[in-house]
Structure formats: C-alpha cells, structure tokens
Amino acid sequence: MENVYTLENNVDITPSQPPRYAGFWMRFWAYLLDLFVVGSIDRLVVYPVFRLLDLSVDKATMFSPIAIATAVVFYGYFVCMTKFFQQTVGKMVFGLKVVTMNDEPFTWFTVLFREVIGKFIAKFILFIGFLFVAFSEKKQGLHDQIADTTVIHEHEC
C-alpha cells in the first residue's frame, strides 16, 4: 500500500520515488548517438560551408580553422542541448535527463563547468573520469561530481 500524507489544507501528497540513476552503458550508448549527430552536423553543414568558401578542410594542426569549427560545433551542441533541454538527442532517445543534485534549474555556469571543464578533466586523465559512473552510488562521472549533477531516467517504465 502506498503512503499518502494529508496536509492541513486537505491536500494529499504521495512521496515521490527516488530518481533512477542512469548507468554507464546507457550513458555510453547515448553518447555514441550524440557523436553520430555531431559528426553529421559537421559533414552536412561545416564541411560544405568550408568548401563553399574555399577554405582548407585539412586538420593538420589542432588550431586549423576546420578543427576550431568542429570543436565549436561539438562543445556548442553539448552545452546548448544540456542548458535548454537538459538532454542531448542521444539522451532523448534513451530516455535520460541531466539534473542538478539540488533540483535547481541549470545556470550557464553549471552547464559550462559540466560540459567543458569537467569533461576536459575527465578525458585528460585517460577517460577514467567517465568510469566513475560505473562505480559511484549516484552514477556520477567526474564531470558530474565537479558540477554537482547526475543523469537520471526521465520516465519510469
């Protein structure tokens, strides 16, 4: 039987279920789908624009114009999708959602800290920061712990 509490003004409150945290493999598959989306944007938009403007698409150095443009698309995609929708296309497909640990709305600072700085640090240490998801109680990667966020299943089945 489900617990129901009644407040003074006769409003029934059912205790909410604790969130179901998204594990490593669900997040991994969502990320692979996101890489496909970002790669598609690069190949359908960025590269044709560069060819149209007769700019080099050679990634000879990390600071070549095409490398910078694709990095802007990559980080822009993750930052904007997380800020405005709390999920990327990959997370949408798999029913996942990024949330703050204190249930407050995302600020630009939180999103930039998670998606740019936190993920850079997680990748810098040989991607070990992402393995934290598999072993932490609330399935937080290093970037989640830095930004005080986590990924949950959006809807219960």
Automatic annotation (TrEMBL):
Chief localization: membrane
Subcellular location: Cell membrane
Domain RDD: 21-147
Membrane topology: Multi-pass membrane protein
Transmembrane region(s): 28-50, 62-85, 116-135
One GO CC term on file: plasma membrane
Coiled-coil regions listed: none
Record key words, sorted: Cell membrane, Membrane, Transmembrane, Transmembrane helix
InterPro entries recorded: Pra-immunoreactive (IPR051791), RDD (IPR010432)
PANTHER family reported for this sequence: LMO1584 PROTEIN, PROLINE-RICH ANTIGEN HOMOLOG-RELATED
Protein name as it appears in the record: Putative RDD family membrane protein YckC
